[in-house]
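user: Please review this fold.
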Amino acid sequence: MTTTRTRADRRRLAVAAVIGHLVVIAGAALLREPTLWFAVGLMGPGLCLCVGAATVLRKAVGRPGSAAKDLDERELLLRNRAHYAAFQGICVLMLVDLLYGLYAAGQPDSGSLLSAMTAALFVFGTSLPALWLAWRLPDDDPEDFEGVAPA
């Protein structure tokens, strides 16, 4: 297993997670009768990619993703910035969901269309703090890991 201690590794994982989320969102947008099985075929691998990459990212960002009692002031500041940026991102995603809901209102099965899109955007929103931290955190100091066996 490769380590994810460098910014480049974390950014590759973040890009993979975003691609997975976009595939799931595309599948949710196509979730109607003529393209139902194609949408489900998109959403399965996309969900595996985005959830898998986001899970590895949460481990890769380390302590700033932890509970407040375990963090120092700098790590708390990073975590709070990540959550604030993610909140803004979720607001944008919910605006996209509202616009999609206005479009879906005129379609048959509007409830299932909107619920699929809301779920896809919600899952994307839950991984935004880890994505932000993965993109913004600098490389770890190699001296912190001297004498530690690689995972």
User: Anything to note?
Assistant: Residues 73-104 form the longest helix (32 residues).
